[in-house]
Amino acid sequence: MTGAELLVDGFGRVRDSALAAVDGLTEDQLTHRVDPDANTIAWLVWHLARVQDDHVAEAAGSQQAWTSGGWSDRFGLPLEVGDIGYGNSSAEVASVRASADLLAGYLSAVHERTVAYVDGLADGDLDRVVDDSYDPPVTFAVRLVSLLSDDLQHAGQAALLRGVVERA
Question: How is domain 3-167 classified at the CATH fold level?
Fold first, then answer.
């Protein structure tokens, strides 16, 4: 298995887990908060897709699906168009409201772009340094594995919240 194949498999697991977390839920269920400041399923899935979209587009030197695919307009969120969720306030988390279909559509669009880019990488491409401000410098492989880790954690959080919502 090549590095690209391994990454494609990993990003497929992110997509599958996040899609399962939102499937069939209402907007109220997707935005349920277990306490007044908790993240919601909608925010978690939106955020993991936004981060993936942002990071992969930057690496590929392409536009994000969020803007080029019209997803920002479809979501109509009261956030800056470049917002990917890092450091969002409780009110900003609450402002991420979307249907399961809209979240699934955006995540799927991001996944397709990610796979199209990552699948074409050679193992040597993964050794490229993308951030030399760290010691040791961060390679593209490390950045992608960090992205996978973050996305899988958020997909797991969304799945946990789904279980809480379904039992409420």
Answer: Four Helix Bundle (Hemerythrin (Met), subunit A) (1.20.120)
Contact 32, 161 (CB under 8 A): yes
Tokens of 7: 């990454």
The whole-angstrom separation of Cα 10 and Cα 13 is 5
Whole-structure pTM over 0.85, yes or no? yes
Mean pLDDT score, 52-65 = 95
Can you tell me the distance from the alpha carbon of 10 to that of 8, in angstroms, rounded to the nearest whole number? 5
Dmax (CA) for the chain in angstroms is 49
H or E segment at 131? strand 129-131
Nearest in space to 106 (alpha carbons), one of 36, 51, 153, 168: 51
Please give the Cα distance from 35 to 53 (Å, whole number).
29
> How many Å apart are CA 93 and CA 79, to the nearest integer?
10
Q: What is the sign, positive or negative, of the torsion defined by CA atoms of 163, 107, 54, 84?
A: negative
In this structure, which amino acid lies at residue 146? S
Residue with the larger pLDDT of the pair 1 and 109: 109
Which tokens in the block code for residue 81?
Answer: 């168009």
